[in-house]
Every structure is written in structure tokens, then in C-alpha cells.
């Protein structure tokens, strides 16, 4: 294996229809079924056609988490009542499902109260025929403030290396090692995203990495100005230099359909003895004394 300094730049122009999902709303729903089993749902709502809920519950003293996709719709029922409904589909177990149990997606229905001029606390049911006799009022329905969400709370619903977990950590301000800065945001419709990974603490190349980092940030900020687009930089350097933080940063990136994304790596590279492809591997170890493995 040979280890040497590497400077890699990857440029991607994203043309992703409907991928601009910079904002989302978070809710907690606690509810039960007819058998008195209790559930806690963590709802991530992007828009009417794009939402999902992580539902945690115990069954036979075993902790389960299932992910259910949701769409929403508004309407008026036969008796003239206005309603709003979340319809669940495609349930997927996140925790081990050794018993191979199935999960019926839940429906959540809100009714508008003409007296209070507000939406009442929702009902839930897993009856696909939506028979009102099977409706059960949820125990609580609360919109969550991302600033008040803890990592322990998220870990109830997500695995350590899930993309959604990293994205929510970023949204809730729980990942502090990586620096994200936005310039010239204004009302510009496009953004140049610079993801810069630099091993600035390395005793042999750290000084050069730090210098390149400064120059690259200045250079691409000027490029954004020249193009008339916003500029956003995502920096992983210094003590935050690690594979985990790189993955977290990439998972927090949501480019719009006309955005530009640049990925720059400044650090050591290496090749396995039996490696046949041309590109070297990035060495994301925070210390050169650590063994190189597939996870570093």
C-alpha cells in the first residue's frame, strides 16, 4: 500500500426534478390501537406528497421501529365536515423483524371545528375502509421545535448510519463539527454548493491543506458572484476530519434542480495492493497512527 497526498475535485451539476427540499416540519404523534398497544410516531413532513413517519412501539417486550411513507389530502365528507388526512403506505421495518410480522399503515384524520375555527386533535385508524366506528383519538399531536430535539430522541427512531438520521442531526443543530455557511442568499434561485474536505491537522501536509482551503473558499465564492448565484460552503477539517462527518455532511446536502455542487478533497490518498481501478482512495483517518480499513 502506498500513501501520498491527494487533491481531488469532483463537479456535479444536479438536474433533480422536485429535489429542492430545504425545509421540513417535524411532529410527534402518540396513539394507541384497539388492543391498547401504544405507539410513538415521529413525522417528517416535506409537502403533501412527500412525508414519512417513524413509528416506535413494543410488541411481546421487543422494541420495533417501522417507517411508513405518507401523502396528505384535504376534503369534505358526506356530512359536510372539512377534513385533512394522512394516508400511510409502504411500511418497512427498520429494526429486526425476525417474526416476519406485517404492519398495517395508519391513517390520521383531522376535522375542522367550526365553533373554535381550529382543527381538532386528530383520529387514527388502520382500517383501510375508514369506518368512523374504528376511529381512535390520538393521545397527543405536537409540532416539534428542531432546536429542542436531542440526539437521544432521534436515536429512538433511526439507526446510526441512516441518511435521514444525519440530515435531521444537521437540521436540529446536533452536528457542530462541520461548518456550513451561506453567502449572497437573497432571492437567487440557484446556489453553488462547495463541499470541502481538508486534513488541516496532518503534521506533514496540514499547512498546505489549510492554505488551499482558504484559497478555494475565496475562489469559489468569487465564482458564485460572477455567475450571479448564492454560495454555500460545507467544511470538514481540523478535529472534525473523519469519515463519519464526511458522510453526515453529504447526507445533509439538498441541492435544487438548478444548483451546482462541487466536492473537493485535500488530504492523503492510498491504494490497496490488489486495487485495479485508477483512482486512489481517500484517507479519512483523523490520525496517521490508526490502521487503514474499509471504514476509514
Strand-helix topology:
Blueprint: E1 2-13, E2 25-32, E3 38-47, E4 50-59, E5 62-76, E6 82-93, E7 107-113, E8 118-119, E9 123-125, E10 136-137, E11 140-143, H1 151-155, H2 163-171, E12 179-183, E13 191-198, H3 206-227, E14 230-236, H4 243-251, E15 260-271, E16 281-282
Parallel strand pairs: 13-14, 13-15
Antiparallel strand pairs: 1-15, 2-3, 2-11, 3-4, 4-5, 5-6, 6-7, 7-8, 7-9, 9-10, 12-14, 15-16
Instruction: Give the domain tally.
Output: 2
What share of the residues lie within helices? 10-25%
Flag low-confidence runs.
Answer: 11-23
Q: Give the overall average pLDDT.
A: 84
Strand content: 35-45%
User: Major beta sheet, specifics?
Assistant: 10 strands, antiparallel
- The oligomeric state of the chains shown is single chain
Query: Given the helix and strand composition, which structural class is it?
Result: alpha+beta
How far the N terminus sits from the C terminus, by CA atoms, comes to 15 Å
Radius of gyration: 24 Å
Number of helices: 4
| Topology pattern, helix = H, strand = E | EEEEEEEEEEEHHEEHEHEE
Number of strands: 16
In one word, what is the shape?
A: elongated
Structure characterization notes:
The protein is of the alpha+beta class and 296 residues long. The chain has two domains: 25-143; 177-282, no CATH class. 15% of the residues lie in helices and 40% in strands. A hairpin with a 5-residue loop joins strand 2 and strand 3. The longest helix is centred in the C-terminal third of the chain and has 22 residues, at 206-227. It is elongated.
Amino acid at each position: 500500500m502506498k500513501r501520498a497526498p491527494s487533491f481531488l475535485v469532483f463537479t456535479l451539476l444536479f438536474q433533480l426534478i422536485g429535489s429542492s427540499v430545504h425545509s421540513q416540519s417535524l411532529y410527534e404523534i402518540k396513539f394507541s390501537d384497539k388492543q391498547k398497544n401504544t405507539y410513538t410516531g415521529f413525522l417528517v413532513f416535506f409537502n403533501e406528497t412527500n412525508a414519512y413517519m417513524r413509528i416506535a412501539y413494543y410488541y411481546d417486550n421487543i422494541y420495533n421501529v417501522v417507517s411508513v411513507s405518507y401523502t396528505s389530502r384535504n376534503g369534505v365528507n358526506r356530512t359536510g365536515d372539512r377534513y385533512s388526512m394522512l394516508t400511510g403506505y409502504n411500511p418497512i421495518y427498520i429494526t429486526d423483524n425476525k417474526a416476519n410480522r406485517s404492519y398495517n399503515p395508519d391513517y390520521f384524520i383531522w376535522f375542522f371545528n367550526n365553533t373554535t375555527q381550529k382543527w381538532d386533535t386528530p383520529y387514527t385508524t388502520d382500517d383501510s375502509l375508514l369506518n368512523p366506528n374504528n376511529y381512535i383519538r390520538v393521545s397527543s399531536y405536537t409540532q416539534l421545535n428542531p432546536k429542542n430535539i436531542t440526539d437521544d430522541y432521534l436515536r429512538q427512531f433511526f439507526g446510526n448510519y441512516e441518511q435521514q438520521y444525519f440530515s435531521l442531526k444537521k437540521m436540529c443543530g446536533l452536528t457542530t463539527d462541520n461548518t456550513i455557511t451561506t453567502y449572497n442568499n437573497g432571492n437567487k434561485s440557484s446556489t453553488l454548493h462547495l463541499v470541502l474536505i481538508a486534513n488541516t491537522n496532518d503534521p506533514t501536509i496540514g499547512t498546505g491543506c489549510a492554505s488551499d482551503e482558504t484559497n478555494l473558499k475565496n475562489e469559489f465564492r468569487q465564482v458564485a458572484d460572477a455567475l450571479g448565484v448564492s454560495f454555500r460552503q460545507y467544511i470538514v477539517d481540523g478535529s472534525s476530519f473523519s469519515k463519519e462527518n464526511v458522510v453526515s455532511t453529504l447526507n445533509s446536502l439538498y441541492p435544487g434542480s438548478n444548483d451546482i455542487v462541487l466536492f473537493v478533497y485535500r488530504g492523503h490518498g492510498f491504494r490497496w495492493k490488489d486495487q485495479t481501478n485508477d483512482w486512489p482512495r481517500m484517507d479519512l483517518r483523523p490520525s496517521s497512527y490508526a490502521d487503514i480499513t474499509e471504514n476509514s
